[in-house]
Structures are given as C-alpha cells and as structure tokens.
Amino acid sequence: MTKKFYISTAIHYVNDDPHIGHMYENIVADVIARHRRRMGDEVWFLTGTDEHGQKIERAAAKEGILPIELADRVVKTHHALWKKLNISHDDFIRTTEARHRIGVLELIRRIEERLPGDIYLGKHSGWYCQSEETFIPENQVRDGRDESGHAVEWTTEKNYFFKLSRYTQKLLDHYKKNP
C-alpha cells in the first residue's frame, strides 16, 4: 500500500549565500525523501526561501540594492547548489511568489471562516536579537547583549497571532489519549 509522505526543510533566509547548515538540512531531508521513495511511498519534498525580514532588508541596504534583488541573486545560488548536490526536491518555493501569498491568504481566510476571532492583530515587545531573528527573554540579556554575546534591541512590533489558548484543554486531552 502506497503511503503519502511529506518532508520539508525550513525556508532559508536569503540575506546571504547558503552555508553548511543549509546544505546539511537539505542533504538529510533528501536522504529521507529518497529512502521513502525506495520504500514505495508517494513523496513530496519541499524546500525554499523566506525573503522577508530585517536581516534581508539590512543586508540589501548594506549593498545598496533592493531586498528582491538580493533575494533573486541568493536564490540562484541555492538552485545551483542543490543541482550540484543532486538534491531531489519536488518543489522550491519563495515567499515572494504569488502562489505563496495566495496560499497564505487562503489559509487565513479558512481559519477566519471556521474559527472566527482566533487570528487577531496584537503587539509584542521585548529584547530582539536581529542576528538570530528571535526575541530573547529578559533574564538572558545583560548590557544590551544576549548570553551568546549578540547585540539585542528593545523592539515593539505588530503581528498577527493565533489564539492557541482557546484550545488548551482540547489539546491536552488529545495528547493524553494519543501519546
């Protein structure tokens, strides 16, 4: 019996050329995809790039180019590297592609239709590490740096959130019944 099997890498930031971490992740995913194909599974292997964010904006500004120009150049490097490594992905998606935007908007529409009020606009404030693209807990910040020595800055930003708290008990019950 053929099983459907989906595997994806993270979508990689395009602020710089691919590095050993990108290669490692894609090679491991490729090995798993090839193994599952040999087992007879119907495999869909997705990889791609995330082309939004402060890192990309800042890297492009440093070069005096638009973020999309940087993204286009780095994506070419990704494609060339995956070809050289013979990565067997079925699809490569870019977050700047129309099909990605359309898919995201459709997902949000469906959630709003079925779960009204579960997606909401809110604010989040905290110590943000731009090089790691993550918020750092206050107890891990000393003299404007995180525990690894990266600079952090106090940031407030608007984001869309999903009201996961509404499902706490249902999820706990599910996990208990399906360990």
Question: Notable features of this structure?
Answer:
three-stranded parallel sheet; single chain; 6 strands; three-stranded antiparallel sheet; alpha/beta; 179 residues
Task: Please give a quick description of this structure.
This protein is of the alpha/beta class. It has helices at residues 20-38, 54-63, 67-84, 98-114, 168-177; strands spanning 4-13, 42-50, 91-94, 119-129, 134-136, 153-162.
Describe the structure.
- There is one protein chain.
- By secondary structure, the protein is α/β, with parallel strands linked by helices.
- 41% of the residues lie in helices and 26% in strands.
- The protein contains five helices and six strands.
- A three-stranded parallel sheet has the order 1-2-3, with helices on one face. Strands 5-4-6 form a three-stranded antiparallel sheet, covered by helices on one side.
- Strand 1, helix 1 and strand 2 (42-50) form a beta-alpha-beta unit.
- The longest helix has 19 residues, at 20-38.
- It is globular and about 55 Å long.
- The model has no long low-confidence stretch (mean pLDDT 95).
